[in-house]
Amino acid sequence: MTRAGFVALIGEPNAGKSTLTNRMVGAKVSIVTHKVQTTRARIRGVALEGDAQIVFVDTPGLFTPRRRLDRAMVAAAWGGAADADIIVLMVEAHRGITEGVERILEGLKDIGEGRTVALAINKIDMVKSEVLLALTQDLNARYDFAETFMISAEKGHGADDLKAWLAKSLPEGPWLYPEDQIADLPMRMIAAEITREKLTLRLHQELPYQLTVETEKWEERKDGSARVDQVIYVMRDGHKGIVLGKRGETIKAISTAARQELTEFLGRKVHLFLQVKVRPNWLEESERYSEMGLDFKDGNQ
Fold first, then answer.
1. Residue 31, exposed/middle/buried by CB under 10 A (0-12, 13-18, 19+)?
2. Is the pTM for the entire model greater than 0.90?
3. At residue 206, does pLDDT exceed 80?
4. In what order do the strands lie in the sheet with 52-58?
5. In terms of residue numbers, what domain contains 219?
6. Residues 6+ apart with CB under 8 A from 141
């Protein structure tokens, strides 16, 4: 009998959710950078383990929201957890039980009832074993986790054990996606996320949180290649100058990096064209949220 279901990864920003999703899937389906709050939408990565199909929902990090976009992201994270068959709380070993983790534990009491909730302590290579043991005991005293895993999402330690446990814990039923599908996201959105990642890695100021990327046009060409036109929306003229860079060098480097990754992801040639437009109020436009896979109304809370 086959098994299939949704596993929501929740935790604070930068807890390693995207890194773990990509490792489990065996391909890069979610943005991974050193910056916090890079995952905006609920990204679904599809992994196979024996007779089981595990659909990982990489949720935005849970934090105290300040802006409409923040509120929509936090709502998406809790929504992803509420809809899942299994919830995995990821906690960074070296940071321990922060105020943010305490808030998440409180939130779990509301949505975790009747659900299987596991704990994954990540980045275990950063602390001594006695610290790990104390943290494990403390967290399990605060919440009744079905299972606890010690992992390093980046290096892979413990990831196979977690994956095997998830596979056998999912409900019996037919697979939800074709065998060769690794992500449940339109290619237009994956392409936009790839470009946004390159922008985030390249621009070290606060700017990445002030911009968004949309795939405006996707054209399949007769030679098997694809032409992809994207718009980078920024909030100020000064931001546009930063994205373009001196003599257009920054945008050129970003375009090259995004095109290379997109070509590799699709396994065929991609012609990528980027435009930068100033939209001072994009954070208040419902269309921008739809393109990010977020609910604009959730930002009202």
1. buried
2. no
3. no
4. 43-49, 52-58, 3-11, 86-92, 116-122, 147-150
5. 187-300
6. none
